[in-house]
Structure formats: structure tokens, C-alpha cells
Amino acid sequence: MTTVEHLDVLIVGAGISGIGAGRYLKTELPGKSFAILEARGASGGTWDLFRYPGIRSDSDLHTFGYEFKPWRDEQSIADAPRILSYLRETITENGLDAHLRFHHRVLAVSWSTERARWTVEVERADTGERITLTCGWIFSASGYYRYDEGFTPDFAGREEFGGLVVHPQHWPADLDHRGKRVVVIGSGATAVTIVPAMAGDAAHVTMLQRTPTYIMPVGRKDPIANALKRYLGPERGYAWTRRKNIAQQKAIWSFCQRYPKAARKVIRWVNTRQLPAGFPVDEHFNPPYDPWDQRLCAVPDGDLFKAIRRGQASVVTDRIARFTATGVLLESGKHLDADIVVTATGLNVQAFGGVPVTVDDRPVALPDTVSYKGMMLSGVPNFAYAIGYTNSSWTLKIGLLCEHFCRLLKHMEAQGYDICRPEVADPDMPTRPFLDFGAGYIQRVVDQLPRQGSRMPWLTSMDYQSDVKLLRADDVTDRELHFERVSVLTQGDSL
């Protein structure tokens, strides 16, 4: 006879979303028991995992940070160590250390309506031991990509290359690039971070891209934010800066969506002023898609453009024919000599950590589910997840989701409900992909993800003001959200 630990809520993942969820639970529902399971041996998620040169946010920390914890650092676009320190301060200040369980990898979760609870199979990565937990709710804060491997295409001839091939997700701690010729494959946020960070010490760094990306310089420090904090104090100054930056993000995105041709011209004008005279801007910085069809890359203080102006870095737009013993041969016939090749080619998207989900002995096929309010799945009871914005700061949405989640749990407790299950009233409601986003890492797996509907509450909103109304102001109840009361076993079930 084995006694199984039961928790009210099980949070999966100790990154920025899981830490936030833990804080909201601790503050809003202090009577609820919960744990935060983390497969790795440290908190911080992305900001602890990635160690490549220059790693930083591409959103300002006044909106990427939590609403409840002011960002006090003078850097608005901050590097990973500063972000990690901020996250770990949040853990300590809110007493979350006791709730964290490291090296706990969730293997499978199964729901029983009869018992109104989840059974969670967990592996202790440090010991190999397997344990079972039960919980009333699961809050998946595991992000959207695989932590154990990044995406690298199959390159012909890679085995012939005599140098080192590195993916940013698995950066060697002892990699020395001083005086080396480096080719960085990619043009997204990771590539535009790595290139200027390596350029100062490398012999030369080449950013090799198949397709250009929209890239804009932003100030690493926000003088208005720092002035507001100085004159109004850290809390009020942070709050006003947050409002300013939310409005600014919305205005830029809306302008790009409504006037893409004008936005393209503005971005090109800025790029031209940042680059050397005569630089082929249209060849290397003029994407075939409109601004914000994919995420716009920010470069702090224009560091990428500075590296290009100094001759420390260059951009090549071409396709790879094959690797050679000494570098990369392009389809144009040009050869790029390299000692190190960095494959900044993206992530492998994985919904909910790839954990198999079963409801009443039936496996859940994610493509058959529809996202409810961007935080639950049709037909899956007592299961919430955290997915942030793709067109502004991730954490803006996470905060609203956590608030709504706590309000929902309070409502269920007040009414004596045990089960909460979203169900689509109209089975013929049109659906579309969960994320309407053109990035390659999303498109590769879009058919494996949940869907979203054609109307609220089944739309996955990417607009902060709309979500403030939906998740903060509106009632948690809805005619397509069904509640039940059942008689369940008490805590400490025996199996």
C-alpha cells in the first residue's frame, strides 16, 4: 500500500511563467497546496538554459517583467544574468523555494472524472526513481519548445567539416572563438544577438541567411523609464513606464499591420542610416513578407549595425549547397571559410512539454482540441497552460492568465465545484491554427498543435487590451465552461 501525495495545483516548469503562477497562487490563494516541478536542476527556464554569447531579452523588461515586481535595473533591454537574478529574487521574496522540486520530469498525466483529479507520473532525473502524484489542477508552464534539443536542418557534407558546429541551445562553456572565422546560420533573434557578441574577438563573423529579417535598433537603456523611476520612485515609475511601453508596442504593431508599405519604408530608412554608405540594404534587410508577419528583431543600441560598420561582421543572403572541409559552399558558388559554424536555425516546438495527456482513459489528440481563452483546452478538465504573446512581451499575457486562473479557482471553491471543463457549444464552429504566425519553427508543427475558433472565447487573443477585458474584467463563468461537483477521495489516497 503506497500513499500518494495530493496537491491542489501542480505547476509544471520553473521558468518565467511557472514562477509567476506560483507567486499568484501563493498571494491570491494561500490555502491551496501546490508544487512547481522542474525537469532541470535550476530555476529560470530559458534564462538559465541558454548560455550563448550576448543572450538578452528582445522585449523591454518593464513589460517582460512581472506587473507585481518593478524592474529596477537601468537596462531596459537586459542580458540573461540580470533577468535570471530578477526571477530568482521573485522566488525568494515570495517564499517559493519550498514549493520548487528540481529534477522532476513529468512523464504522463491522466485525468479521472470519477475522482476529479489528475494522476501524474514523474521521473526523478537525478536518481532515476519514478513517483506518482495526484492533483486537482495542472498548470502547464513548460514553454513551447523542447529543452533537450534545438532544430538543425540536415546539411549535406556536414561530416566533412573540419571545424566546430554549435547550436545555441547547447553552447559549450569552454568555446574559444578568439581569432576564429565564424559563420552564424540564421537571421532571427538568436543570430542577431550572437553576431555582434562574437564579432569583437573573432577574426570575422558572417551572418548567413536564407531570407532577410526586419531588424530595428532600440536603446538598451530607456531614459524616460529611468527618469520616471528617479522622480516617481521605483513602483510608480515602473507602473507608468509599463503603461507607456504597452501603448508603444501596440502602436508599432498596429501601424505595421495597417500600413505595411509605410512601415517597410520606415524600417528601410532606419536601416540605411545605420549601415555603411553603399551597403546593399535591399538584398540583406528587405524581407519578402510584411513587417510583423514574423517577429521583428530588436538590436540594442544598434550593436549588429555597428559590427557591420566596423568591418567585424558581414551579412550574406544565399542558400547552403553543402558543408566542405573548410567552411560552407553556397548555391551561388561562393565559399565561406569558417573555423566555427553556429546553427542559429531555431527551436523544436513542443506543446506542454510533450507530455501525453489522457482523459478518462482516452488519449487527448491536441489537434482535436480548441483553445479556450488562450489558457484551457476543450474537453480537458482542470488543465490550464501559459502561452504568452508573439507580437509583444510574453509576460504581459502570462500575468493576466495567472490572475484569471486564480479567480477561477476562487469561484470553484466558493461554489463547491470540483471540475471545470470547456466544451464548444457548436461542433461546426470554424477553426484555424492555434498561432497565426509565419515563423518557420511554428509552421513546422502547426498541424500538431491545438486549434483556435472563430469567436470568443475560443479565439487566442494577441491583444493586451482585449485580454485585460476578457481575463481581468469579465466574469470567469461562461456558457461554454461547465462546472461539476463530485464526491472524491480525500488527500493522501492509497493506491
UniProtKB/TrEMBL annotation:
Give GO MF terms, alphabetically: oxidoreductase activity
| Family matches, as Pfam families | FMO-like, NAD_binding_8
Q: Is Oxidoreductase tagged as a keyword?
A: yes
Sorted keywords for this record are:
FAD, Flavoprotein, Monooxygenase, Oxidoreductase
Show the InterPro entries listed in the entry: FAD-binding_MO, FAD/NAD-bd_sf, Flavin_mOase-like
SUPFAM superfamilies for this protein: FAD/NAD(P)-binding domain
Point out the signal peptide segment. Answer: none
List, separated by semicolons, the cofactors it needs: FAD
The UniProt record lists the EC number as 1.14.13.-
The Swiss-Prot or TrEMBL record describes its family as follows: Belongs to the FAD-binding monooxygenase family.
Q: What is this protein called?
A: NAD(P)/FAD-dependent oxidoreductase
Annotated organism of origin = Actinoplanes oblitus
